[in-house]
Amino acid sequence: MEMNENLVTEEVAENTEQTVEETPKTYTEAEFNAKLDEVIGKKLARKEAKIRKEYERKYGDLEEVLKAGTGKDSVEEMTDTFTKFYESKGIKINKKPEYSAKDIEVLARAEAEDIIRMGYEDVVEEVDRLTELGAAKMTAKEKAVFKVLAEHRQNAERSNELAKIGVTENIYNSKEFRDFQSKFNPNTPIADVYDIYTKTQPKKNIKTMGSMKNSTSDDGTVKDFYTRDEALQFTKKDFDNNPALFKAVEASMLKW
Fold first, then answer.
1. Is the pLDDT of residue 209 over 50?
2. What is each CA distance from 167 to 197, 225, 233, in whole angstroms?
3. How many CB atoms lie within 10 A of CB 238?
4. Phi, psi (5° rounding) for residue 39?
5. Which of 33, 190, 246, 250 gives the lowest tally of CB atoms within 10 Å of its CB?
6. Distance between CA atoms of 226 and 256, rounded to whole angstroms?
7. Nearest to 95 by CA among 77, 105, 80
8. End-to-end CA gap in the chain
């Protein structure tokens, strides 16, 4: 009887141990995203290393020969040197088709939209790549693509900042707010822009404490320039009662 009890005890312990081992680990959303970023980062790094190794295997020796022969360091410089050399020998080099400014704009817009559809991370990656390349080395199309993507990235980041403080999409994507936002220096914090924007909109029970503080100069007239901190102190009532004040603040926005 004692032996049977021992067998039962051992069997229960063994089953319990197996159950514990087989219980899957659960992750919080933050832990899952961090793990996903880690896995994707390693995968991209391996892919990049593989492409670089393949390039080195195929073209590494050739590149060194061309560098030695031309005395140039970059592929662009070597290409230009050989193009001029062969053209001087009467050899016609097939060049890429020339596009009008309108064609370049259309092609760039289409390429940028493709990247945008792939997601925010792809937009950031391409913007960073082009930034590192530098405007001097960009083609006309790359410059146009960069402009579209950089604007999209900035708008996405600003929209995210507004969403964090409870601003809904129908407000920050409205034409009225976008037009108002465009009057500010791009470096002005978007939360400050929204704060001033709300003061231009109809509201009930607006607090008037501190109203018109520093709104006029010492002689009582509206000042030519207001700092961002000064502008944030005004209320809608201040602007309604003194349209010239709002115009002065609006003009000051461009200098912040």
1. no
2. 12, 28, 20
3. 20
4. -65, -45
5. 33
6. 9
7. 80
8. 89
Tokens describing residue 150: 């950089």
> Which residues are CB-contacts of 192 (< 8 A; sequence separation ≥ 6)?
228, 232
- Between 29-70 and 75-88, two packed helices, what is the crossing angle to 10 degrees? 30
C-alpha torsion angle, residues 82, 87, 90, 93 (rounded to 10): 90
| Coil vs helix vs strand at 222 | strand
pLDDT of residue 203 exceeding 60, the answer is no
Helices (H) and strands (E) in the chain, counts: 12, 0
Please give the Cα distance from 240 to 220 (Å, whole number): 17
Single-letter code of the amino acid located at 223: K
Taking only the tens place, the pLDDT of each residue in 57-84 is: 877 787 788 888 888 887 778 888 888 8
Q: What is the pLDDT of residues 86-105, one digit of tens each?
A: 888 888 887 777 778 888 88
AA identity, residue 125: E
Phi, psi of 105 (to 5 degrees): -65, -45
Are 161 and 171 in contact by the 8 Å Cβ rule? The answer is no
3-state SS class at 11: helix
Residue 126: per-residue pLDDT: 92
For 226-253, write each residue's pLDDT tens digit.
Answer: 787 777 788 777 777 888 888 888 777 7
One-letter amino acid of 67: K
210 — alpha (psi -120 to 50), left (phi > 0) or beta? left
Distance CA 230, CA 121 (A): 37
d(CA 152, CA 115): 11
